[in-house]
Amino acid sequence: MNEASMIGMLSTTISFGALLYLACIGELISEKAGVLNLGVEGMMALGAVTGFLVALNTENPWLALLVAMIVTAAFASIHGIFTVVLGAEQVVSGLSLTFLGLGLSAFFGKSAVGNPPGAILSNVDWGPLSDIPWVGPILFQQSPMVYFAFLVGLLTSFLLTRTSIGLALRGAGESASTVDTAGHSVVKIRLAAVATGGALAGASGAYLTLSITTSWQDGAAAGRGWIAVALVIFGAWKPGRAAIGALLFGGLLALKTRLQTFGVDFSPILLSMIPYLLTIGVLIIISIRARHRPSASPAEIGKVYRREER
Amino acid sequence: MKRLVLVRREQSLRGGQPLSFLIGLVVALLAGILLLVASGHNPLEIYERLFNSSVGSSNAWAKTLNRAVPLGLAGLAVAVAGSMGLWNIGAEGQILAGAMMAAWIAQIGEGWASPLLIPLMLIASILGGALLASGPGIARAQIGVNEIITTLMLNEVALRLLQWLIHGPWKDPESRGFPLAPLLADEARLPKLFGRAHWGVIIAFLVIAFFGFIVSRTAWGYELKVAGSSGATARYAGISLNKKIITVMVLSGGIAGLAGGIELSGTSDRIVEGVSGGYGFAGIIVAALALMRPSGVAAVALIFGAVQVGGLSIQTLGVSSSVSTILQALILFGAIGAGVFNRYSLKSVKREKKGGST
């Protein structure tokens, strides 16, 4: 293992971590408001293909990112309307959203397979900072999306814990009737949370095709949406802990392709099981602890709120 | 000012669900037309091909039936858990576990006669799925761990295990580098019923009918529903909730595992990455459309089987097979949308004065 491959590994850890983190924060916001959305995998795929196609046609990566986020926010709102307004089962609606997203992205992306990118989000140049040995290439030669991701996480953490909007949002997931009594609309809060979650999953997808793979192919999301769902639990619904989890899982993804380079004789496929097994482990710990103190998971997640039925 | 609100009906509409499903199907097909026209295809030509290739001939029916088998069993697996209010999102992984176990028995039993080998393979597949589902069942019953997440995570774990097998220990030396397990011996393959349709069709039908009977006609099935609707009532009635949760999850996993064994022995003939074919996830949609009732599962699985077979056939017309995935999701959304009106009616009421919350 030499210096260059170590730096490459750590730099990839951060970029993959940010990719997972963006989608994870979106899911976290949605779940905090009481809506489980298992459509992340589909939303990521749709964001990825939208970003790539818009970049192909306009050669403007920022416009591509923006359109991807708007499209996936609207797409996530299908789930919002079906579960929050019409009272459909969140599990079923979310999985169908994944189906629909994977189907639509394969359908519209078909013509773009194999195309070179129209535009990419190039790495930020931090001037002298980028030239510092080790630190420069790892922290200061990254896609703008990396900084965006962790900024969004910081902002979400602040919003959730320090503002009245955050309080209302958490309330919608913990005790919807209380929020209702306080004069907020549970339906509006939940719809907004789901749409925001969609926009962030879309941003994560666009980041994938505009910065990481810089190409589109079927199944580009490659199960990363499910890892993002896992991360929310791994992070016990806290943006800070989720960031640590994102770097850990990102590190595992980065290590996967490098095991052989590092001369480690272990199957990269078996290595990629670890995030899921860790998540199950964390969930078991959370559940055991929940017997003695309030659970980390939002109390009313998965429940439809209807005033007349409370 | 007036606005529309949803008001709960005192009783759900009779026959509402089949009707909603039909509406969902029509909505999906109409949306499909828009999609096809927008992308420059002739929808009539494509729908004709879709129809003919899935139900237009006995050969087509054979393919549709074969597809309906794993869809129906996965749907049943979800429905059995769902009748108790549990979510088994892990049918996909349990199918893989079942297929892997069956393939393992096929390796051990090389040279055994079919009447011995095939039943053993199918039993092993049931055990494989049951084993994978038992963990989430026990964790849910004993510690209250959310089974949605554990079953979902185990899907990915089972998939990685299968990938590892076909990239390593089980890799066919003659596969020219492709990650495939060797083909099953002829003795390990389910006999054919007619055309390409295999005996799995009969097995699946019997299993679905059996569970349909158990769930709707026996005391045990009734207890499930009681336990599902209210844990407190169940405890009062002396029903052991923990035992039921574990039993139901194990049964559910076993059914999904059987789907994997049948799929391996009847259709795919070898372990490949796509042996589960997304049937586990589609099974959740199937069960939801059937309102968790086994009888409905069979009917929905047949239609989904036809849509999937049709979806593959339109690829030759230059259309992405993803159209079938899109149609399946749209059927569900259309049916849920229509289904709302089984339980609710629209009423127009006067808008509240400012100050009242919406």
Number of domains of chain B: 1
Helices and strands of chain B, in order, run as EHHHHHHEEHHHHHHHE
Give the CATH topology of chain B.
ABC transporter involved in vitamin B12 uptake, BtuC
- The first-to-last residue Cα distance of chain B is 14 Å
The most extensive interface, with participating residues per chain, is: A-B, 54 and 48 residues
Task: Name the strands of the widest sheet of chain B in spatial order.
Answer: 1-4
Low-confidence stretches of chain A: none
CATH architectural label of chain B: Orthogonal Bundle
Q: What would your notes on this structure say?
A:
The complex is a heterodimer of chains A (310) and B (358). With 310 residues, chain A is mainly alpha-helical. Chain A has one domain (10-309). In chain A, 69% of the residues lie in helices and 0% in strands. Chain A has 14 helices and no strands. Chain A has helices at 3-32, 40-58, 61-85, 90-109, 128-131, 135-139, 144-162, 164-174, 176-181, 186-212, 224-234, 239-256, 268-271, 274-289. In chain A, helix 2 runs antiparallel to helix 3 (61-85). The termini of chain A are far apart. Chain B is mainly α and 358 residues long. Chain B has a single domain (42-318), classed as ABC transporter involved in vitamin B12 uptake, BtuC, CATH 1.10.3470. Chain B has a two-stranded antiparallel sheet with strand order 1-4. In chain B, strand 2 (192-194) and strand 3 (197-198) form a beta hairpin. Classes of the chains: A mainly alpha (310), B mainly alpha (358). The interface between A and B is large, with 54 and 48 residues.
Helix/strand layout:
The complex is a heterodimer of chains A (about 300) and B (about 350).
Chain A: H1 3-32, H2 40-58, H3 61-85, H4 90-109, H5 128-131, H6 135-139, H7 144-162, H8 164-174, H9 176-181, H10 186-212, H11 224-234, H12 239-256, H13 268-271, H14 274-289
Chain B: E1 2-8, H1 16-38, H2 43-55, H3 58-82, H4 91-108, H5 114-143, H6 147-167, E2 192-194, E3 197-198, H7 200-217, H8 219-229, H9 231-236, H10 241-268, H11 279-289, H12 294-313, H13 322-343, E4 344-350
Antiparallel strand pairs in B: 1-4, 2-3
